[in-house]
Amino acid sequence: MSDGNGILGGGVFFERRRSAATSNRRKWVKTREKWLVVLGIVLHAVYMLSIFDIYFKTPIVHGMDPVFPRFSAPAKRLVFIVADGLRADKFFEPDSEGNFRAPFLRSVIKEQGRWGVSHARPPTESRPGHVAIIAGFYEDPSAVLKGWKANPVEFDSVFNRSRHTFSYGSPDIVPIFCGALPHSTWNTYPPEFEDFATDASFLDEWSFDQFQSLLHKSNEKKEMRHLLEQDNLVVFLHLLGCDSNGHAHRPFSSIYLNNVKVVDSIAERVYNLVQGYFEDSLTAYIFTADHGMSDKGSHGDAHPSNTDTPLVVWGAGVKTPRPSSSNHSHCGFRFVDNHLHDALTPTEWGLDGIERVDVNQADIAPLMSTLLGLPCPVNSVGALPLGYLDLSQAEEVEALLANTKQILNQFLQKSQIKQSHSLYFKPFKPLLHYSSILDRIEELIQTRDYQGAMKLSENLRDLALEGLHYFQTYDWMMLMTVVTLGYIGWMVYIVIHVLQSYASLPGNIATKEQNAHQGKSSMKVYLFGCFFMGVFSLLLLVDRSPPLYHAYIAMTVFLWTRILTEYEFVKALWRTLCMKRSNDIIKLLASCVLSILILEFLVNSFTERRLYTWCFLIAGAVAPFYLSLLFPGRLAIKAFVWGACWCLSIFTLMPSEIPDNTKLVVASGPLIILIGVAARWQGLHIEVNEYWYSILKLDYRPKFPMLLALQVFLVGLSSLMVFLSTTHRTEKQELPVLHQLINWSIAGSSMVLPLFSAPNLLVRLTSIFLGFAPSYLLLSIGYEAVFYATLALVLMAWILFENAILYLSKVNGSSTSEHEDRSLRLSDVRVPLTFMVLFNVAFFGTGNFASIASFEISSVYRFVTIFSPFFMAALLIFKLFIPFMLVICVFSSITKLIGLPQLGCYFLVILFSDVMTIHFFFLVRNTGSWMEIGNSISHFGIMSAQVCDTLDFKIIRLLCLKRSISPDKLLDQLWHGKYYLQTPFLLAPDDHENAECCSCKRVRIPSCGPGDLGSNPATPEHLLG
Fold first, then answer.
1. 617, 710, 766, 974 - which has most CB atoms within 10 Å?
2. pTM of the model
3. Where are the transmembrane segments (predicted)?
4. In 3-state terms, what secondary structure has residue 284?
5. Are 533 and 553 in contact (CB under 8 A)?
């Protein structure tokens, strides 16, 4: 494995020639790598944004005229109630005693109105859900960057079209729609009220009290009374209690289920209050939810518990109940959450005898508009659900036609904008003659062929939606081609740089490479590249393309221009490869194929975590066997490697939705302490003549002797705080501020302590492991705390494995004398590949890092209980990054241990990551469930972000081994007897004259070479004693 050859098999001769020229090239390499790292970060950041231009451009366009319905409004006012986070099944099903939790709304379903399930399109979050309901379109993805609160793009809504809107509820939702709306009256409670440590049903009562107070005040204020008597009014009550209680206590808890009763009671009181106040039967009522709640108290993905929400509509303009038909069409139509149309109603709901009308969430916006006789929001893509409306046949056709024209206007506006900006415009052919279709619909209405008019209107509406999608994806092919060529160019250029800077190459290649930089051909290539870049930029300017389009083109042209300047180097490299022996070519090809197979394995592991179980089961068997070939005996080491790998294999079989297990988290504290103390004890008591551990055992006199004891104390204290904090939440008590301060203090101080540890590999890594443990424990709720400890054992096994290979190469004399400057070898590819496997295990070992719903929000309750989505998300992401920090610390230490150039390894990691990145780029989806869509985006983003590991490498180099002695120099000094060892600190060469005898526990390594070690000097067994 360590045969001494370079990455192309250049041999020792070329290695020495390269070493002689290294000092002259070092400055050039450093300068080149600085801009290369910057280029990589910029390139990946720009290309990450490309998926939003390709797949997720904002659907909003401006400039359309509203389409008013040509019939009288069925209702004068609309009362709109949204129970945030209310699951459909918890709303409709009975409790354990057979009593239904929403008796009033069930009576409405059976006696007054219509009902169904509203299917939410993920991300099932509060802002996109409300935007879909009130504005009728599915949220622009850029809104996630604003925390679902601010409006990144102005959009129309039902509230905008109303004469006046009264709104009360959460400060996270109400200001989105009413904050800049002049014809609105609204109020919100303070954000501090959203405390997960309390029963949040009082928030719902607050919203009702505000509305009740409004009506009472109107009896005294004539202006308010006059306003309330106007038509086209909307009353919006946002009830947050179910969402907050679901997060804090889970949707099957008594608090959440009782909140369902509270919501039903508020709906009944609102109905009685409005009916008694107006007494005109011209009020329509809509009750629904923005999203559901998963069993573990989170939401975001496309699980039915998150996407299925109740919908109850009654009052003016709404049909009364009618018996359900057993004839299901099975037409294959699917809602936006990918659920089938005409799904059977669960028997336990007790509503299977009443007709159910399911809708997409965006369909509610045109329903509200039609009830009030208002034009639909101009950006709405919702289809009007006629099954809820009590209209005549002529009015139904007019309502449907208005809905169709409103969507068609969006299509026409997008088509006009694209045509005015394009040199070569490709229209959407099915709607080239849309005007004739509209004329035909009008003719059918005139002849009272309402069925034909409705069918034709529905077909035209479907075509308009297809046309919107066509222009939404108009630039796909061009952008995907440019970005793909850019990624390929970046990978090719990385390979060229690694070969030029870190590989052992024949001297004639290096000479030609240097000449290529100074040749006149480079200037011609640059001029050619500038010409192409100018032409493409001019075309994009004519098309009025966004600025990022110019960036995509510029990056791609620049990279390929740089590659063409290396033409002479590539040609000489090809000639060298052609002269190689077939065995060398086969080894190179086999390594490439194996690397690609491992990377494809990692790509598939993003969607199937159980693959890691097989990976570590195999690694646990193969690694000890390979160690047996290197070093017979030493069963304890092999058993450790085997046990660590097999223990880690268990975690990817466990559910990604981590169940609560406080006892396991508390027990993990002593386990972590045991591992840390055992590592330190091993470093202090290992036998001196075991070269296997020489780099692990050498230590400096500690500056802070009590550091280990302090870290152990903080880990133990964090376990105690986990128990105390969870007990308060379980008993429904508010978490004391003192507890939060203690938790913050433990987490903050523990992460600083590793900086004060001795700069020795084992000591520093142990200190880092103990330093991050308190934070991780305080953010854990279940088995992930044990995963943290097990991952540390596997990382130690990796260090032992690489150390074995290092000493074998030293004994066999195949290792060079200066590891810090040695070239990369073909066998060194195993190090970045192993890092990538462990990197992904660190992220996916305890769940699906790419899924929104895998963020267990209760993890942060020991630090903060007031709802703050971005702050909580930051804590969750920090928790997920802690295992990765351990992996990158060990990776940096291993490169130092075996003498690999760290930036060379970094570029190999980036190369392998980009092989996966370009794969995930083509796997990004914008169809199907949002769980699939969101995961595909996250997978692409995670791999693209790995280029930023260079910043981590710089930090880790300071954190892990700053001021530590070079491992190879230290090994050579020990080999030639220039150091004396004394547990636990190291004497410099100048101290050997003052060294005492062996009775004082000082041991001198004799000045001898491999030939002076005894009867069998070349065997590892001799070195291991």
1. 766
2. 0.70
3. 35-56, 476-496, 525-542, 548-565, 585-605, 611-632, 639-658, 664-683, 704-725, 737-756, 785-808, 829-850, 870-891, 903-924
4. strand
5. yes
